[in-house]
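Please go through this protein, sequence plus structure tokens, and consider how the sequence yields the tokens. Keep your notes short.
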Amino acid sequence: MQFGIFTVSDITTDPTTGRTPSEAERIKAVVAIAKKAEEVGLDVVALGEHHNPPFFSSSPTTTLAYVAAQTERILLSTATTLITTNDPVKIAEDYAMLQHLADGRVDLMMGRGNTGPVYPWFGKDIRQGIPLAVESYALLHRLWREDVVDWQGRFRTPLQSFTSTPRPLDGIPPFVWHGSIRSPEIAEQAAYYGDGFFHNNIFWPMEHTVRMVELYRQRFEHYGHGRADQAIVGLGGQVFMRKDSQAAVREFRPYFDNAPVYGHGPSLEEFSAQTPLTVGSPQQVIDRYAAMRDHVGDYQRQLFLIDHAGLPLATVLEQLELLGGEVVPVLRKELAVNRPAHVPDAPTHAGLVAAAGGSKDATVYAAADDVTGASPEPAAAATTGRER
């Protein structure tokens, strides 16, 4: 399994001090958090995408490229890449570029996003959210796998003999997770392509998570990608820890009570009972998350949200120490016990390259033409001298 963290990139006032960090502080903080995550032995750091206050992460590829330059091992992901309001051509280009710069340490999570006004800001209609997600990803999928694409759809201008550059590193596109909280159509989409399904269940009861994951697993098998228990599943989570559970609750309560996303709603105790939020000792976190597979089966990725609601950077780094030092090592062992041999590991670039028979130079060699923007014809692209 892969264990890591994700951030929603919020800029929130610390309710215990009344201080609100600046954008500059939060941007630098998320870099420090990513570096610390690698230091304590986590596998993944994932960054959300937002285009409105109080969030700062409008350009995840920029931030992740900066993190890539300062890390060596940790896998860089997103949470989420907005497949509905971003141009799939630009996604193809940007994440292939990041994939090269990070030596393959890149995957991404596609999602519709949960901020309604973002659609008209980018010239889209929120009422077309699902069709946009389906069509845009269908195009992106082709752009990473076909050297020359002719395409026409409902939501963007047609493409004629288009080649997305750079081509994916080693001829292998970044692995894609389809993230959803409540849309069965997105679970269906993930299953259709044989991609991963990430259920960001941080606000939902386990019964809902079980239904969504089960739908994805059944449809994954239906489309012939393998057995249902071989489908690639990821889950979200939220934790806050101290050595003493009462101290954890006491310290976290003001952050919970005032958080923009769930403050002034259910109590901390009610929310903790109904969702994966676990506020307590490291052992309580271990017990809660070791039991997740009892509900959804053996799965591949577990990400935790730990830097939200105004928590200061020093506190977040302390949480990472506990997560990497006391929680994840135990969870790795416990979740490996009785894990069937046929259940796949979490996808990595190296694993995908090996499964494809080795790396390939995917470069499309074509005569320079800065005037017309011409791409090679499909037949020409197939005779560039590389193995296919």
In short: Residues 383-388 have pLDDT under 50 and may be disordered. The radius of gyration is 21 Å. Residues 74 and 222 are 33 Å apart (CA to CA).
